[in-house]
Amino acid sequence: MKVCIFPNNSIISDYNNDEIMNKIFNPENIFEEVHIISFTDKEITEEKVQKIAGNAKLKIYAVEKFQNNEIKNSYKIIKDLVRTISPKIIRAYNTNREGWVASNCAKELDIPFFHYIQD
User: Fold this and answer.
1) What pTM was computed for the model?
2) Strand 33-39 to strand 89-92: parallel, antiparallel, or no bridges (unpaired)?
3) What confidence tens digit (pLDDT) does each residue in 61-83 have?
4) Are 2 and 35 in contact (CB under 8 A)?
5) Range(s) of the domain holding residue 33
């Protein structure tokens, strides 16, 4: 089973701040593939942060940060990427740009959506 994650921060930022946690995006190793959509210009290689996906195959996609006036074009590119990934579930961690894009992809592509916000 595949999951598509829209994290709060870029993975490279978490790595540089020593905030990489074991299986954070694949608790109990329930997913076979973890696909991360990261809103950044440059990302880290999957090998350096594999532990965030546990035993799953990890793939990180760097999609450039975009301005609000570019959201329609950027959203279409991201939606097409999610369609190609074909996940069984989409997960987001905030209600900001990442959460908005994730929830709209889920709605338009008819993919279950899980939204988690930490208190």
Assistant:
1) 0.91
2) unpaired
3) 999 776 666 667 788 899 999 99
4) yes
5) 2-115
